[in-house]
Design a protein that fits this description.
two-stranded antiparallel sheet; 14 helices; mainly alpha; 4 strands; 395 residues; extended
């Protein structure tokens, strides 16, 4: 019992109980109903009158409940900047109208609207050239501003077409950008790092798109592309820019994948070693690496393996890239383990010898430190029996 409290006797407890019972009997029971001035008003007998209708509750957002996930209120689409109709039928109508507009826009871009878009792109690039020529800013800042605006413009127009659906308009975008860059190059200083970087990225994007074309360009289209790239490369070489070298190398062929030596390599037919080495040296490591990556991406592993093996064995090309690693990756992906071991037996043998030497040296150091250490030596060829032998002290 807490301190400061006295224990009540049984008589006092009984007295308190009686007092509570008498007080309850004295007070009349409370009844539900209206209370007037003289007391509670008794309800008339009979059925209760109907309750008045409740006022319309304010609109509340619905609860979205998933099994195993606590219920939470979903955000109203209007709060996220999305305007949707509450009526399902109206929403379906809006969705169908939006899809129709998207299809019409796609038809416009793939049809006659493509020429109009490319014409507007040329006009915007001409405006960038004019601003660069009339700029009063320092040469480095003006060149950086031009490169930044050029990239933003190309990104805006490149997003209008998909590589898998409309690759030719994208190729037109890249060629128009290269022509515009060649015109603006005399006004761009080489002190700005973005000048060479933008041209190199543009050439890489163009090569990657050409490698991914589902169908080869027609003879007329390829001849136009060849002329454009060769003229641009010669003009840029006069100012000391060689970033279009591998694109110009690709343009010298009769097609992206039409080289006779390349076709022989990919078909895994008997090869002329001199012609293969000449072809590899002509293409260079950048273009060859992009070809191998494209073949791997399109699940042509046998062709990628054959090309990567030749590149890794070339005396010059093999030292300028990661062709050996790429070749091993292709082998691990496409070849069984027996072939992988057979192909890399010299490398694996060297690794085993190095590992054995390391283990022997560690054992020598350990035994030299503890001269009385017991050593275990396997004397049975099958490894079933072992003999324990104590060694003498090391001198």
């Amino acid at each position: 019992m807490p301190r400061g409290h006295r224990a009540l006797s049984p008589a006092a407890l009984r007295r308190g109980k009686l007092l509570r019972l008498e007080s309850r009997r004295a007070d009349p029971p409370k009844r539900c109903g209206l209370r007037g001035a003289d007391g509670p008003v008794q309800q008339p007998p009979g059925p209760r009158p109907p309750k008045p209708p409740l006022a319309a509750a304010p609109h509340r957002r619905p609860l979205y409940v998933r099994p195993g996930v606590p219920a939470h209120r979903a955000r109203d689409p209007a709060e996220r900047g999305i305007v949707l109709s509450r009526d399902p039928g109206a929403y379906a109508t809006e969705r169908a109208a939006k899809m129709a507009d998207d299809e019409a826009e796609q038809e416009r871009l793939s049809g006659g609207g493509c020429a109009a878009e490319l014409r507007r792109l040329g006009e915007r690039l001409q405006e960038l050239e004019r601003r660069l020529c009339e700029s009063r800013e320092p040469a480095v800042e003006a060149a950086a501003a031009y490169c930044r605006q050029l990239c933003q413009t190309l990104l805006e127009y490149a997003e209008k077409w998909k590589t898998s659906e409309d690759p030719l308009p994208l190729l037109e975008v890249y060629t128009v950008a290269i022509q515009s860059y060649v015109k603006a190059r005399p006004y761009l200083t080489s002190e700005c790092e973005s000048v060479a970087l933008v041209l190199e990225r543009l050439a890489l994007s163009c090569v990657e798109l050409l490698l991914c074309l589902p169908v080869e360009l027609s003879d007329k289209q390829w001849e136009q592309f060849q002329t454009l790239v060769q003229v641009a490369h010669e003009t840029l070489m006069e100012s000391g820019s060689c970033e279009l070298h591998f694109l110009a190398t690709l343009a010298q062929e009769s097609g992206v994948w039409k080289n006779a030596v390349l076709s022989t390599i990919l078909s895994q037919e008997p090869l002329d070693k001199d012609k293969v080495n000449e072809f590899l040296a002509f293409e260079g490591p950048i273009l060859l690496d992009m070809r191998i990556k494209h073949l791997i991406k399109t699940n042509q592993l046998s062709q990628a393996t054959a090309l990567a093996k030749l590149c890794s064995e070339h005396p010059e090309i093999g030292t300028k890239g990661s062709f050996k690693q790429t070749y091993l990756v292709c082998l691990c992906t496409s070849s069984p383990n027996e072939k992988l071991i057979e192909e890399n037996k010299p490398v694996m043998a060297f690794g085993l010898v190095a590992l054995s030497l390391c283990v022997a040296y560690i054992g020598y150091l350990h035994a030299a430190q503890e001269n009385k250490k017991d050593l275990y030596e396997a004397i049975d060829s099958e490894g079933h029996r072992h003999k324990r032998r104590k060694t003498s002290k090391w001198d």
